[in-house]
Amino acid sequence: MPSPVPPTQDAPRLAAPPALDPNADPLLVGLPKQRGYGQWIVSRMCDVRTVLTDPTTTVDMLTPKAMARFMSQQGVTLEQTMEIVRIVARAHRVPNDAERRDAIAITRLFQGTLQDLDMASALGAIASAEGRTVDVMADLLRPILGACRATALAIDPELGQRVEDGLLAIMLTVERHGPSDLAPVEPLARAVMQDLSILEKTRGKAREMPITHWIFPAFLALLPITYTSVSMLAHLAETPELQETLRARPELRPGYIREVERLMTSIRYGTRQIGATGLNLGDVWLPPRSLVVLDFSAANRDPALWQEPDTCLLDRPRQPTATFSLGPLACVGGQASRQFLSLLLDAVMQRVRVSLPQPGAEPDRLVTQWSITRGYRLCRLCLSTL
């Protein structure tokens, strides 16, 4: 998963680039654009691929260093905050380091639980014959994925969910306050580290791994799977004819899952830092050490690769997407995510019909808040048993 998109770069002289809103920013594919001193945004698939596969490109090293330097200048010590920020920013990541190997191992443990997952029963338990409106995030997907995590790692499900919620709260608070006011983050970071220390004493599987190596694969990495799953269910509710076609023709479901991956990816933005010699994208040269924002959602709609790029077409030829990143630091959970989405889709087709709820006083949907994710953190849909 990419690190949070920083609001500024390193020096006080730099004007802050315009804030990114992954849910509201238009999905535009075009030439690389400068969005502030030393910062660029790329949206064409060819440019995204070039940045991600360049051997000199790294994860964002600037933001954690800038935060540490600012706190040093202010005489502030936020040890727990910086430890988590460094992990989330992946400041020490290389393609084959110990953390990445552990992430692969944890992902395999998680994937090993999926075939025994009874999603049909979970759906049946919250649906009704006359139709029941539920928040599919809180009532369905968080419990399912939390149970998968608890089974895979032999941990307490409530404690695991608390760590995930705490880590997301840290990311949102860092973005809300910026590097100049991180004091409100430290109590959140201390609480997460305390919970991780409890897990370290009680965990079952993967006991030999440092507990901090769990932060991404066991907690933050489940957020995008959840958001994409919610978006898929919402799309099925919005397209009842497509839903019935998929129910009647199971052979079309793999093509739909590929389109879900392409169009409904929940990680919209990622960041990379260009190497010491710069990077030539053909139309634009990215200067050394510049910070690049990668728009994965736009790249997945590049008309150079996909005809009618905004349309869900079940018979598209297979084409690699940017959803799980590319290159040596690509996401290790792509296969597990696709498997989960496929199992969820099959369970929906077998057990329930998904539809839009009747309008009410409360909003039926609330969008995600993290600056790299798009989708819904609340989504009420009506589930009717078949």
Structure description:
This protein has 386 residues and is α+β, with helices and mostly antiparallel strands. The chain has a single domain (33-385), classed as Cytochrome P450 (Cytochrome p450, Orthogonal Bundle), CATH 1.10.630.10. 46% of the residues lie in helices and 11% in strands. It has 14 helices and 10 strands. The strands form 3 sheets. The chain has a 4-stranded mixed β-sheet. Helix 2 (62-74) runs antiparallel to helix 3 and helix 4 (98-112) crosses helix 6.
At the fourth CATH level, what is the homologous superfamily?
Cytochrome P450
Return the CATH architecture.
Orthogonal Bundle
What topology, given as strand order, has the largest sheet?
1-2-7-4
What separation lies between the terminal Cα atoms? 37 Å
> How many DSSP H or I helices?
14
Percent of sequence in beta strands: 5-15%
What fold name stands as the CATH topology? Answer: Cytochrome p450
- Average pLDDT taken over every residue: 89
Family: Belongs to the cytochrome P450 family.
InterPro entries: Cyt_P450, Cyt_P450_sf
Enzyme class: oxidoreductase
Protein name: Biflaviolin synthase CYP158A2
Highlighted features:
386 residues, 4-stranded mixed β-sheet, Cytochrome p450, 10 strands, globular, alpha+beta, 4-stranded antiparallel β-sheet
Chain-wise SSE layout:
Blueprint: E1 33-36, E2 39-42, H1 45-53, H2 62-74, H3 79-89, H4 98-112, H5 119-126, E3 132-135, H6 136-153, H7 157-177, H8 185-202, H9 215-220, H10 222-238, H11 240-248, H12 253-263, E4 269-273, E5 279-280, E6 285-286, E7 291-295, H13 296-299, H14 334-351, E8 352-355, E9 365-367, E10 376-385
Parallel strand pairs: 2-7
Antiparallel strand pairs: 1-2, 3-10, 4-7, 5-6, 8-10, 9-10
Helix pairs in contact: 2-3, 3-8, 4-6, 4-14, 5-14, 6-7, 6-10, 7-8, 10-14, 12-14
